[in-house]
Every structure is written in C-alpha cells, then in structure tokens.
Amino acid sequence: MKYPKLPAMANRGVSRRGVLQGAAALGAAGLILPHGVTSARAQTRGGTFRIGLGHGSTTDSLDPGLWDNLYVQTFAAARHNQLIEVGADGQLVPEMATSWESADGVTWVFGIREGVTFHSGRTVTVDDVIASINHHRGEEATSAIKTLLSAISDVRADGQNLVITLEAANADLPYLMTDYHIPIMPATDGRIDPASTDGVGPYIVESYEPGVQASLTRNPNYWKENRAWFDRVEILSILDPAARLNALITGEVHLIDQVDPATIGMLEGRGVARILSIPANAHYVFPMDARAAPFSDNNVRLALKYALDRQAMVDTILGGHGAVSNDNPIGPANRYFFADMEQKGYDPDRARFHLREAGLESLDVTLKAADAAFSGAVDAASMFSENARAAGINITVDRVPNDGYWDNVWMKEPFVASYWGGRAVEDHMFTTAYATGADWNDSFWSNERFDELLLAARSEVNEDLRREMYHEMQQIVSFEGSVVIPMYNNFVMAVANGVGTPEQIGSNWNLDGFRCVERWWMA
Amino acid sequence: MILTRVALGIGLLFVVSLVIFWATELLPGDLASQLLGQSATPETLAALREQLGLNDPAPVRYWNWLSGALTGDFGVSLATNRPIADLIGARLGNTVFLALYAAALSVPIALTLGILSALWRNSIFDRAANAGALGAISLPEFFVAYILVLWLAQTGLFPSMVRINPTTTMGERLYMTFLPALTLTLVVTAHMMRMTRAAIINLMASPYIEMARLKGLSPLRIVLRHALPNALAPIINVVALNLAYLITGVVVVEVVFVYPGLGQLMVDAVSNRDIAVVQAVALIFATAYVGLNLIADVLSTLSNPRLMHRR
Q: Do B41 and A146 touch (CB under 8 A)?
C-alpha cells in the first residue's frame, strides 16, 4: 500500500492553494514555486508576532510527554518540527519524513529528510527520530501517549530510513505520527533531553519563563523556504479574558484565543481586529456510565439524547460559533464523517416513548458539571435540565468545583460533562474513548460489533470499504453509544488587522493547528 | 523585650510551617494526577508518583522539606524540576517591587489625607476625603483595575499589561507598573487614612492637647508636633498590616495586569498540586506577615518608651 503523495488534488480540483499544498507535499516548494505566487499572497518577512493565550502555567513542563495545554503546544510548534505535518486542508504534508510507505500496514518505512540541522547546529539523524519516539515508549515512560504508541513493537534505523513495526496492521500510522507530543529532538546515547528546547523548528528559543512568556527569534537555517515570516515571536500567558481582550485592543498582542462570545460584537465594532471562527472536530460531551442502571439501558440513553435542544445550546453556549452534533465524536473535518446520518432533534415525545420502552414513567438523574469541563458547561447542563423536564426527565444539575474535576468527578461519577479536542483520525478518536476497556472510555461503554469494526477498519486498505465501516461505527455510537454529544465547538480567535492569515486555516487544532507562528505573516 | 518578640515570631513560624504542610495534604488529588490531567492512566500515574517521591510517608516528607528550607534550599519544583529558589527569586523581586511602589504612593497620601482630615474635622474636605477613600476600598479590586484600564490604558496613556524582561530599565518599569500600583494604592489608602485620622482625633481630646491649644499654638503644629508622635503606634501597625497585604494578597491585580508576581505562582502551584512550591510560597508569605508585624511592634515600642518598662 503506497500512500498517494497528492491526495488533495485527486478529488478537489486544482486551486492555487491546492498547488501550493501539493508543491509543499513534494517537499520542494521553494524550488519550483514562481516568485509571483508568493507575492500574490502578500507575504512579507519581518515584525514581532505577539500571542496572548488563556493558557499556560508556572508548572508547564518542557517534557513532550506532559504537554497538555494550548500554550505549550503553540510554543512547541514554534521551535520544533515533527515527522509529518497536518496541512491546513487536513492532508498530510512531509516534514522531517520525506516519504512513508507500507506494504502490509504492519511495517512502515519513513524516509528521513537529509541535511536539516538542529538549532544547536548538529545534523538530524535517524537516531534522533528514534529517540524522540522512544521517549514515549517502554516501562519508564511517563508520557500521555504511552498507550497510544503501545501498538508499536519496534522502531529501528535502516540507512536514512526509519522502520516502524506494529503489532497489528494500522493504515493510519502516518496520522499518528502527527501527534503534537512527538517533536523531533536531538538525542545523546539514544535518549532525548526532555528539558531541552533544541529542535529543528522555525524559531529558536531566546528566553522562556513558564506561565509568563516565551521569546523566540527566527531560525536562519530553517529548511522550509516559504514559511516562518516573522523575525521574532513572543508567546504570553494572559489568563484573564478581559485582560486578554484589553491586550489585543491596546495593541500589546496580535492574536488571542478563547474570545468570550459575549464580547465579539464589541470587539468587531472597534475595528482593530477580526474574528476567526474555525469549524473543527472538537466537541463537548456528557458521558453516561453504561455499566450501571439507569444508563445501562439504551432506551434511557436514547431518551436523554432526544431530550435536549442542541441548536439552542449552540446558539447560547457557543454564541453560534459551533455546529450541532449528532452524538457523533467524528467531526465534519474528519475524512470519513457520516454527514447523512439521521439527525436527532429536540423531541420530548420521542424521549417519553423511549422512557416507556425502558419501563419507566419518569427518570431522576444527577448531572455533575464544572466549567473545568468546558467553558459554559454548567449553563449547558442547566439548559439540558430545562429541556428534559418536558419529557418527564428530572436532571438535577450538581455544580462541582473546577479544582480536582478530572480526578474526582470525570470517570468517577455516572453522568458528567466533559470535552474532547477532536482527532484527525477516526481510529484515534474511537480507540481513545470508545473501544471496550480503553483507558479514557469515559462512558465505560462496550459494543461487540463496534470493536470488531474498529479492528477491521484499522487495517482495511480499500477506501470505500473503510468509509462504510466508519459510517457504521458512527451510527452505532450515535444510536447505541453512552455519550450525549450536543455540539462541535469552533476554534474562536481574534487577530489584529495588521496580521495576514492564509485563506484556509487549519482545523486539526486551535491556532491553525498550532502553526500560526510559521504560516502567518505581518501584512 | 525585643528578644522575646523575635523568639515568639520564630515559634509562630514553626507552627505555621506545620499547618502549611498539613493543609496541603488535605487537597484532593495529587501532583501526578494533575500533571497528566485528563490523559492520566493508572500505569503512567504509578510511574510518575514513583519518580516524584510522592509515595514517602508524610512525616518523612515534612522533615526533608523543613530541614532544606532552613538552609535556604526549597528543593525542586515537582512539576517542572526547576529549583524553587530560581522560580521564586524573580517573582519575589517583582512582588516586593510592586508592594514598595504601591506603599510609596499610598503611605504619604494616606498620612497626609488622614492628618488633614483630622485637622479639618467635619469640614467638606474631611467628608470628601473619607467618601473617596471609602468608595475606593468598597469597590472590588478587579473593578477598580478595569476602570483604570478603560480610562488610562485604552486611551493609550499607560500599558494595559506589564511585560518585564531583563533589559527593562527602572524608568520603563515604573511606567509599566503604574496602573497596578495605582490600583493597589486606591485599595489600601482608606484603611491607613482612617486609622491616622481616628488616632489623632482620639488624642485631640487629651488634656495635654487642650494645654497646647491654650498656650496658643497653631492647629497644624499641635497635630504634627504634639498629637502625631503619640499616635504613631497604631499608624505603624496599620501600615505594616497593609504592607503585608500588598505582598501576599494581590493575586487579582496580578491577573488583571498579567504581572508575574508570587500570587499567580501560588495559584498555579495550588491548582497543579505542586506542593513543594505551595509550601515555599506559603512560608514566604507567613514570614512576610510575621516579620512585618514584628517590625511594627518594635517600632511602636520605640515610639513609646513607656512600653520598654514593665509597670
């Protein structure tokens, strides 16, 4: 099975963007692009790009295995490269890997780019790549993606190639390698130094104070020619939403995240910045513990799924910056998204019907929520409770402290609020939270047919068959799963007018897939 | 007399250290589960706990910590592996700078307003000064801060956030931190001013002031020369209390102006269960409180020699 190099062009028609992306995919964009194309997008070098993020803490770690918030993720994308990049259109773009192929989905061969140097001046070798991956594997590893990479049985070098052997076939391994936890870092004696900031990325770290500020300067030896436009990048941690907004209005920063929907109108009226609202796979969830009554009965779960007004939630909780979800963890930005599935609406009669099917006249449940789950979670829970009353379901909303939410409430209480960042790959999402016995299967749900399909789809090479399988799995999760998924939330950010952004913004993660630092420019 | 006070202060700090250690044990969850957050699995949790030494019994951890702290070594942050002394050093400097800046603004203002309003008791000036100061103290800190940002930062007069780096000069620093210092000034002035006014008015009824007045001294001279020295003890105490507050209680102002001080470090450390940092910062805060009160005690004793001798 060879991965097509230019999947974007096969079925989308060739746009200027397509050409750019395709060219980038060839790994030689700078060489073959006529200069006219670059200047048509008015990209210019120079300037200091300052980002103010509502994340970051004094306890943030440089260890890739512990990265968990937007601050460290953006900071990492500014100084590191990975094996493979996810392009703004969701397609894979070669980065440190120039090619990847596998005959059987079990043994994968990645060609490693030659002649690229770390900030410290040393040339990247295959051994560095191996150490960067192995940092997350083995007994000693404390990485958050240890489980994810446990399917890898062996990583070794073969000349300038990297060979990864899996325990079972997985057609999505290249997507797995785009995970932000796996930057390529320099190795000594087969180990990376997790406290080092050395990388091959677009910017070199000048200073870093966790929870406060990171300053970086452009890497003069960066191998990509049409990227990294800014001379300097500063990433600031501004936790207070009002302070963040003020910083943008007064010109202290050029980009902020997590814009409060209530302030968007005011901000637009000022005329200093524009709002970017990017539809994505990220979603908010209400998992129910499927192991015990009443949620062990699928009719009860269906009753709850018909007892909430999803559109009202999108309008109120997200201020319209999102989309209704059909209890489907696979989002519209995914490859195999099942768009034509029968949409569940707000239908109290149908909810009542399912309650009766379950042999119940009314239902009393407690929903525990805190805004730690997602911004507006408590309000969303209250709306759910109001909506459900019409169907004879009494949801008592129990507001719990943000502090310790993930320790004491999530996956401990039977009915809670939570969120998922969305995954670029269907298999990644399903394996993480829906496969029987998965570590983060937060609804403790188990479905034999689903598990079968998950295994089969993972190694299926026929695109059509694969699509069919993923559609069936989405159907199963939606109508038999134990998670209420009301909505997909957009990534909402505000950008100063002086900053240029591409026509298409990446939706795999926030801030153009964390890559705003190397894709955006000062206009 | 003074030695007894110092000994008492040290004893108090020891008790506080016990309380600090015990209180952090009560927090739900531990550092390992906070570090991994939603991505924690039992397997990785166990490995991380082992690495961080969280499995030792509490008394052992207390002893290790206290003996280290006494020699100025707070150990390393459990979350970042950086020495806590490094972590705290710059931030303690920032916090003390802001506290002194605010004190330099607020103490003269408070004393002047207090003395003048005692001098012109029940005049329009007295009423206006009282109303203004009480109004400022009644508004929540973040509200005062936002109002100042709206009036003074969005109009471009002062920056809305503080960005300090090693190359910042003293002048720039004073300019950038003006808004947070002003906010704190508005918050603490009323307390000191009211105490000054009350202490002086209290003395104005004394017979020796009556005598001074009968001698024909000017009201200003009576207040400054005769009343104020005797009113110093309560004023020194309230100034010390407010200074301690400026060092320990300004987290809201730090957040609004993105000021890298100790308060934010403490909040981050608590929410991430970085116990070592929480304990170190709490100990510093306790030392600031105990130390400043000790100094206030000593100063008020000196200002009133009668207190030096037992009756």
A: yes
Facing B36 at nearest CB: one of A144, A211, A252:
A144
A239 close to B (CB below 8 A): yes
Alpha-carbon distances of A437 from A207, A446, B41, rounded to whole Å: 43, 8, 12
Determine whether the interchain pair B163/A238 forms a contact, defined as Cβ–Cβ distance below 8 Å.
no
A494, A256 in Cβ contact below 8 A?
yes
Nearest of A393, A390, A403 to residue A360 by alpha carbon: A393
**Cβ distance A32 to A500 under 8 Å?**
no
A58–chain B Cβ distance below 8 A for any pair: yes
- C-beta separation of A289 from A482 below 8 A: yes
Name the strand (E) or helix (H) holding A235: strand A232-237
Q: Long-range contacts of range A400-403, CB-CB < 8 Å, 24 or more positions apart?
A: A400/A368, A400/A369, A400/A370, A401/A370, A402/A370, A402/A371, A402/A372, A403/A372, A403/B27, A403/B28, A403/B271
Q: Retrieve residue A235's tokens.
A: 């990433």
Q: With contacts defined as CB-CB under 8 Å, which chain B residues touch A237?
A: 258
pTM of the model: 0.80
The token pair at A445 is 């749900």
Residue of chain B with shortest Cα separation from A208:
B165
User: Of the candidates B134, B138, B140, B144, which has an alpha carbon nearest to the alpha carbon of residue B113?
Assistant: B134
Q: Does A207 touch chain B (CB under 8 A)?
A: yes
Number of inter-chain CB pairs under 8 A, A vs B: 126
Q: Decide if the complex's ipTM is over 0.85.
A: no
pLDDT of A8 reads: 34
Residue A36 has pLDDT above 60, yes or no: no
Could you tell me whether strands A203-209 and A213-218 are parallel, antiparallel, or unpaired per DSSP bridges? antiparallel
Q: Is A324 on the interface with B (CB under 8 A)?
A: no
Q: Which residue of A has its CA nearest to B37?
A: A406
Nearest CA in chain B to A406: B38
For A360-405, what is each residue's pLDDT tens digit?
989 999 999 998 888 889 999 999 999 999 999 999 999 998 877 8
Q: Which residues of chain B have pLDDT under 70?
A: 27-31, 33-40, 52-53, 78-79, 310-311
CA–CA distance, B31 with B264 (Å, rounded to integer): 18
Interface residue A66 vs chain B (CB under 8 A): yes
Of B41, B80, B160, the CB nearest to A246: B160
Percent of chain B with pLDDT over 90: 26
User: Residues, chain A, total?
Assistant: 523
Percent of chain A, pLDDT > 90? 63
